[in-house]
Design a protein that fits this description.
- The protein has twelve helices and ten strands.
- It is of the alpha/beta class and 273 residues long.
- It has a single domain, classed as Metal-dependent hydrolases (TIM Barrel, Alpha-Beta Barrel).
- The strands form three sheets. A five-stranded parallel sheet has the order 6-7-8-9-10. A three-stranded parallel sheet has the order 1-2-5.
- α5 runs parallel beside α7.
- The longest helix has 16 residues.
- The structure holds zinc ion.
- The site of zinc ion has 4 residues, from β1.
């Protein structure tokens, strides 16, 4: 079974803040040695395939105060001519350009397939009204949006912005917007995310960074909401991806559910073949 990894970061030391580069050096020596100086899509794809991953979502980010900057243009260029690398854009809050205009440009001109937003890294509340036209727009285009929720180890991130309950309001106002809550509100807000699943049919959980073996404990109704859990690794923030896939396969869940978590739910969300 080949997985889809919904959560991959690309870039070199030039993209990341020094403490992130240092984190990669310690946590993922393989990445540090092979990809941190120079990287290219063919090598990343070969690595993903070697880990049991057939497709990967490549994430942009604008978080100069916390982790760094990987522009939409960089991600689009990286994924160009590689249908198994799927570009997700982001919105830059450090420039004057209107948020909706940035979203339109990212989708209509550049061709992103979804968005990733980092409230705790870029210091904003996701339910601020200035984002509502953006949510309206991407809902109308059926583009998924992923948010980092819960804690982070990186300097410059502020957890007050990462509370999953902000998404109660957003999911309610935009009931057809597919909202992926990455990290499930780790580590002290899992119960809030578990509740959001029951309350809103458009809330999904990205399992990147959640200790896999505890998933059924944190989300006791995982079988009931089996269409809403999505595999992601957060590579290169973890040493390798394959062990994470193996941990999902070892869960006390049916094969049907494991397939959904590892790739079928992602296919549905991405509209992929
Ligand atoms: Zn990440």
């Amino acid at each position: 079974m080949m997985a889809i990894d919904m959560h991959i970061h690309v870039g070199t030391y030039r993209n990341w803040t020094p403490w992130v580069v240092e984190f990669f050096r310690k946590t993922n020596p393989y990445f540090y040695e092979h990809f941190s100086q120079e990287t290219d899509p063919d090598r990343i794809l070969a690595y993903l395939n070697s880990q049991g991953v057939k497709k990967g979502v490549i994430l942009a980010e604008y978080a100069p105060k916390a982790t760094g900057v990987v522009t939409n243009e960089y991600v689009i260029d990286f994924c160009k001519d590689h249908k198994d690398l799927i570009p997700f854009g982001s919105i830059c809050l450090y420039e004057e350009r209107d948020i909706l205009e940035q979203a339109r440009h990212a989708f209509e001109t550049l061709g992103v397939k979804g968005f990733k937003m980092l409230p705790s890294y870029a210091h904003f509340y996701p339910n601020e009204e200035r984002f509502f036209p953006f949510y309206e727009y991407i809902q109308s285009k059926n583009l998924p949006v992923m948010f980092h929720t819960g804690t982070s180890i990186f300097k410059g991130s502020l957890v007050k912005y990462a509370d999953p309950l902000f998404f109660d309001e957003i999911a309610d106002a935009f009931p057809d917007l597919k909202i992926i809550l990455e990290h499930g509100g780790r580590p002290f807000w899992y119960n809030k995310v578990a509740w959001l699943l029951t309350r809103h049919k458009n809330i999904y959980v990205g399992i990147a960074g959640i200790p896999t073996r505890h998933l059924p404990e944190y989300f006791p109704h995982i079988d009931l909401y089996q269409d809403r859990f999505i595999f992601g690794s957060d590579w290169p923030g973890v040493p390798h991806i394959k062990p994470l896939i193996e941990k999902v396969l070892a869960l006390p869940l049916s094969d049907t559910i494991k397939e959904k978590i590892l790739y079928k739910n992602a296919e549905t969300i991405l509209g992929a073949d």
